[in-house]
Amino acid sequence: MIKGIIFDLDDTLISEKEYIKSGFKVVCNVISEQHNLNFDKVYQKIFELFDEDSDYVFNRLLDCFNIEYEKEYILELLKIYRGHSPDISLYSDAEEILNYLAGKNYKLGIITDGYKITQNKKLESLDIDNCFDCIIITDELGKDYWKPHKKPYGLCRENLGVDYSFLIYVGDNIKKDFITANKLGMHTVQIVREDGVYKDLDSIEESYKADHVISDLNELKDIYNL
């Protein structure tokens, strides 16, 4: 019998690409104002560069517009990106399943990786704290405790007061979301989003795979008779 569900955040409850778009918009606005450039051209260019390669995208963007810069300027842009208040929303099926579960007696949690300032800003924008009994931002424990470390899973289980065997863990990243949850005896579900950053990842070993693969969070209702 299922007593609790723990969700990943990025590309599970929200679109990571939607967050990236929001952050790029803020950064491009800063660059265009500081260097007297057309915002639309800068914003279009950053996505062209990002689609080619996500590494050093701010450096490459500045190079494209012949802007001289020091390392400190890149760090400033990164700080703006990570610390901005994002224009994001829940996936429609995430909103539906959370509204559905709100009428039940299930314990709900979130375990999310990512810089703590960034993840906190996302949660503030979403205003969903009251939907969950426990929210673990792994970076607040320390970088060594990001998934797949077992500590965040253990803390969440302890806060929810539910044994692992009665918990579902739902995430998207097959490289890190499920291997620990599987070892701990949790039920595991991979959600594959069309716009997901990790949707095309392949698992190396069976132990990394989830028990079920879905494309809509509402499928949880039928799989586990929620």
From TrEMBL:
Annotated TM spans: none
Assigned keywords, A-Z: Hydrolase, Magnesium, Metal-binding
The protein's name: Putative hydrolase of the HAD superfamily
GO molecular function per UniProt: metal ion binding; phosphatase activity
Cofactor(s) this protein cannot do without: Mg(2+)
Alphabetical GO biological process terms: small molecule metabolic process
SUPFAM superfamilies: HAD-like (SSF56784)
InterPro entries in the cross-refs: HAD-like_hydrolase, HAD-like_sf, HAD-SF_hydro_IA, HAD_2, HAD_sf
